[in-house]
Write a structure and sequence with these properties.
single chain; 174 residues; mainly alpha
Length: 174
Amino acid sequence: MDKLKSFIDNNRDAFDDVPLPEGHWERFEKKLPGKNSNRIKRYSLIGLVAVASVVLFLTLPAEWVEDKFQMTADVCENQQEMEELKMYYEMQIYNVVSRMENIKEDSDSPLVAGLMEASQQVLSGNNRFEKTVLPGLPCSDDGLFVVNQHYSTSLQSLRRMLDQMEQYTSNNNN
C-alpha cells in the first residue's frame, strides 16, 4: 500500500492529465450519503414503529371483537346507519390514501415507500374487518360503536402516516 501511495505521489502529473468519464462527479455525488441521512434514519424508525403499532392495534381488537360478538346476522334496525357510517369512513380513507399516493409518485424515498406499505396493511385490515367481523356484529348501538371505533382508528392512523409523509417531503424540499 505504501508503494502504491508513493508511486501516485511521485507521478502526480500523470494522474491529473487523465480526464474523468462523462458524468463521473454526478454519479459519485449520488453515492455519497445525503446531508439528512440521520434524519432519514430517524423518520424510517418512526415510520416502522408506527407501522408496527398500527398492525398490532388492528390485529388485537379485531380478534377480540370477533370472539365477543359471534352472532348471526339478523335483520338489523341499525343496518342503514352502519352502512352510511362505513361509506363515510371509506370516503375519508380514500381521500387520505389518494394524497399519500400523490406524494409517493413525487418521491422515491424508502420512508415514503414504507409508509405506503403500512397504509396497504391498514386497508387490508379494513377488508378483513368487513369480511369477518362486520357480518357478526349485533344490530345495536354496540355494533355501531365497534364500526365507528374501527374505522376512526384506521383513518387516524392513515392521517398520521400522511402527516409524516408531508413533513418528510417538505423537509427534503427545503
